[in-house]
Amino acid sequence: MKAVTLSILSIIFMALVACSESSAPESSEATQGIAIEVFKSPSCGCCGLWVSHIEENGFEPTIRNRNSLDAIKKKLNIPANMQSCHTGVTSDGYFFEGHIPAKHITAFIANPPEGAIGLAVPGMPAGSPGMEMGDRFTPYEVLLVKADGSTEPFATVSSLEEQY
Ligand SMILES: [Cu+2]
To answer: How far is CA 119 from CA 45, 55, 90, 104, 142, in A?
Structure first.
C-alpha cells in the first residue's frame, strides 16, 4: 500500500516538474503568477496595453470591466489627485493605480512599506507602460500612498529604458 502511494506521488511529482518546465516563461522574473484584479473601462485601450505589460512580467491579471470606476476608487481610498485610468488590486488589498511599471509593483509587494495602502502614477504620463508613443517620454514619479491620503515618492522614472 505504501509503495503504491509513493509511486503515485512520484508520478504526480514528475508531472508537476514537467509541467512547470514547459510552462516557464522565457524571462523569469521573481513575480511569476502574482494575482491582480484590474478594474478598467471596457473601452480603455491604454489600460489593456498596461495589462499586457504586467502579464509579460509575471502577473496574472483578472480583468474587471466597469463603466464607472468611482466605486472601486472610493472603496480603496485612492485620493482624487492620485487617480488614473485603471486600478489594480492584489489579494492583500493594496492598490496599484495607473501606468505603474511592473517592476515597481513587484518591489512593493516584496516588502510593503509600513503604513502604505498602494502605489499610484496619477494621470497618464507619455511613454509609461501602456502609454507608448514612439520616443516620447515624460518623466514621472511612482508615488506611495498612505492611509491618511498623504504620499511620498516611491520611485522616480526618468527615461523609457528605466521602466523595464
Ligand atoms: Cu491609461
So the answer is: 21, 18, 12, 9, 7
